[in-house]
Amino acid sequence: MKKFERLLWLIAIVGFVVGAFGLYDRVANGHINVSYGSYVPWGLWVAAYIYLVGVSAGAFLISALVYAFGVQKLEKIGKLALFTAIITLGISLFSIWLDLGHPERAWRLAAHTNFSSMMGWMIWLYTAYFILLVAELWFALHADFVAWSARKDFAGALARFLTFGKRDASAEAQKRDKSVLRVLGSLGIPLAIAFHGSVGALFGVIGARPYWNTGLTPIMFLVGALLSGGALITFITFVFGPNQGSAEHKETVIFLGQIVLALLALDTLLEWAEYSIGLYNSIPAHAASMELILFGPYWWAFWVVHLAIGVVLPGLMLVFRGKTPAWVATAGLLIAATFISVRLNIVIPGLAVPELEGLSNAFTGPGLTFNYFPTLTEWLLQIWVVSVGLFAFLIGYRVLPVVSAQGKTNIPANTHKEL
Q1: pLDDT for 328-368, tens place per residue?
Q2: Which residue segments constitute the domains of the chain, with CATH numbers given?
Q3: Closest listed residue to residue 266, CA positions, set 316, 311, 318, 331
């Protein structure tokens, strides 16, 4: 696992250096060297944003099984799941911030919120969700911060600072922390559902885009968030989880794999319902986007990346090798890594069908095209953003007690349930 961690450090460094050119191009030249335009105004960065924010929601809901429902099989990874949720939320918002024409004006979304707008609500839901995540992680780590305060290294100094003077780690203090964690975890469940459901609703309420305009869209966003977030946590637990190599570690990874398999089946069922009904009713405006996904120039994104590598292959791994942690973790990585194709197949095809017949031939010029594929600048900038998140995770893993087991468990005191 240490070798794999070193590999991740290498990937983060290379991605940061190479992707820096994309950041420079975005800052220096704005939106000149991108493929999106007037007809397809959203591209890779928007797809990455809804993908990463979904991963954050899914990771948080895994932690909620620990802190709100007291699932003991997952108690050792609650802090790790919360930390992952914070990192992925941060880079998701950074992705969409860079997509804005004037990122420096983002503060106006909060200062001048239009509460009749779905996007206006999203700003405040994100803010509340971020505050809740930070507060919950602090209470989950409080006893560990106190224990680490005795260390003489940088991690110890950081732990002493992050206690904020609250050095009481007695049984009574830990009991109070557990009570707060249960409240925060319970509040976070509807909040996570609301904020990511609102992302789905942002697409679903657009009547001019029939492919998005369905009540199933918010539900699919939520199930996809649980699947991608749970899959990533499965892989992270295998690589970074506590007590590696022990029977407990193996049991935790296998249990997460069972959850992911159930979510994969549910997500596939919803996707089948969406595509089969949309194609069967043959309403041109609705079916056109689906036909573009299945048989268009980027058919391979659905059939190869998503279906073959992201559904069938990991599904077979979880069914036939579900008792082997390495296979389970590999399946989780495949699902998490390929799920970006699902988000791209939501964002781009919904925009790539002309709203008016003949529109694609009516005007010509830069940005007036329905054929979108990310440019090198778009790919490099997104690689840079993900590399920043990977750096933040690896550094936090080293200097924060996100996988330590100091003191008593942070499971709510009066819950002893297991799924």
Answers
A1: 999 999 999 999 999 999 999 989 888 777 787 788 777 78
A2: 2-242+356-399 (1.20.1630)
A3: 311
